[in-house]
Specification:
single chain, 350 residues, seven-stranded mixed β-sheet, six-stranded mixed β-sheet
Length: 350
């Protein structure tokens, strides 16, 4: 079974402290604008199943986990399932929270990211009759559903857009760490770039960390000095440094996982998306409907698990003239060809 597929934005510094929890209990749809109902005050749910999401770090630190929380909440409300989210605020708390969920007899225990792998392997192996799921990595156990993504498909679209939009035929990427898994981003992007603009030069530099905006900014400035007019951010927290450099120098960039264009649409003109909310929702839905299966399940463009702003998802931002509607139309056609199988985007990690 393949190793963990880490999210570019999901890797951040774990905060110190002990586990904290917030609880949401499903009920009939409340009136719009009504406050969240506390577990002790909620009406009886429509289902007797209980689902818990255990994040490997505090949700406020990383929107990647906030999306998971939203997906679980949405499923809880829609299917009448009692749901609870527990935020782990240090690495040791992950195993502690998993064991507490087992003791509290949750029917489905969901966690995510490579930070949770070791703890889940231990707890799931010791509790073979319990059902577990992990998002964005693989744990090869018979009672675990592993939900992963075909990020290389979205990276291909992003590279294709950059190839069509660049005016200087020089495109860059600031990536986190030079390890095989990051090739899903760098290689996918480069292949898409070559497909639409074989004459474009591709510059890639590695920060050597997932949490160094200063170094990422330095690399972005170096790429800009080499002539790049579009520099993709793929360095987790480091992307903040890329965004800062783009604003200072006036080049164009893109974000990861969520729609980053809304923070600075003049310079952050695209975002590569990862639907952790959608897969968390689908995981709960499958469990409630009796279609839940263990093993590895992957989500790509066809399943709407990954995408690119303006191409696969609309944005609150106005489309940048640097990209333009003509580019979006062409990239949408490429997206359709990938979904239909006409265009094959190989996974470089395999």
């Amino acid at each position: 079974m393949k190793k963990a597929l880490i999210s570019i934005f999901a890797v951040t510094v774990l905060m110190t402290g002990c586990a904290t929890a917030k609880t949401d209990t499903a009920s009939s749809n409340p009136p719009a604008g009504s406050p969240t109902v506390e577990a002790s005050k909620a009406p009886t749910a429509k289902s007797d199943k209980k689902v818990i999401l255990i994040t490997p770090e505090k949700i406020g630190v990383n929107p990647f986990f906030a999306q998971e929380d939203e997906g679980v909440k949405k499923a809880g409300k829609e299917f009448g399932v009692v749901v609870k989210t527990v935020e782990s605020t240090d690495a040791s708390a992950i195993e502690q929270n998993l064991r507490a969920a087992v003791a509290d007899n949750y029917d489905l225990i969901i966690t995510s990211s490579f930070e949770s792998e070791d703890a889940l392997k231990k707890v799931a192996a010791e509790n073979p009759k319990k059902s577990f799921a992990i998002i964005d990595t693989v744990v090869d156990l018979p009672n675990v559903r592993s939900v992963v993504f075909r990020e290389h498909e979205a990276s291909y679209l992003l590279g294709a857009a950059a190839g069509l939009a660049t005016k200087k035929n020089i495109v860059g990427m600031v990536a986190a760490v030079d390890i095989p898994l990051i090739k899903k981003y760098t290689v996918g992007f480069q292949e898409g770039l070559k497909a639409t603009n074989p004459n474009a030069k591709f510059i890639v530099n590695y920060v050597g960390s997932f949490t160094d905006p200063a170094k990422a900014k330095e690399l972005a400035l170096t790429q800009f000095a080499q002539g790049a007019d579009f520099i993709a951010g793929a360095s987790a927290v480091g992307d903040l440094g890329v965004f800062e450099a783009a604003k200072e120098k006036g080049f164009f960039t893109s974000g990861q996982d969520i729609d980053r264009t809304v923070t600075d649409p003049e310079h952050i003109v695209l975002s590569q998306l990862k639907g952790t909310d959608a897969v968390a929702y689908q995981t709960v839905k499958d469990f409630v409907n009796g279609t839940f299966k263990f093993g590895s399940v992957d989500y790509g463009l066809k399943e709407d698990g990954v995408g690119v702003t303006f191409v696969t998802k609309e944005s609150k931002s106005t489309l940048s003239p640097f990209i333009g509607q003509d580019v979006i139309t062409k990239v949408k056609a490429i997206r359709d060809d990938i979904v239909s199988g006409k265009v094959k985007v190989e996974n470089p990690v395999k």
